[in-house]
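TL;DR need structure tokens for one chain.
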Amino acid sequence: MSTLYVLLLVVIVLGVWVGFNYWRLRRAAKVVENHAFAEKIHGGQVVDLREPAEYRKKHIMGARNIPAQQLKQSLAALRKDRPVLLYENDRGQLVMQAALLLKKNGYKDIYILSYGLNGWDGKVKMN
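>> reply
TL;DR here they are.
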């Protein structure tokens, strides 16, 4: 019986943690579909959070590559008065952490491409 209680507690804690992270992300950024992302590209700053090798193979036209691991050191390269549009291959942990970092550093207009580059139907540059 005690094993059941422990398992139930683990499931509850895990559910609360997932819900909390979802809430934090929704406060930091807006997850948008292709058409909304495309509308914001003009006038926005598109940031590809993937590694440089992946970026060179294929990326959204107009995107700049700032790998997620280097974002903290590269904040000065992004303007706070313009929207920041983030993406990776899929919507995953890179964009979530990047959005939270940007929000913490005073960026207000942050957008995440739903389903990332894999779901993008706009223009791309391929090498």
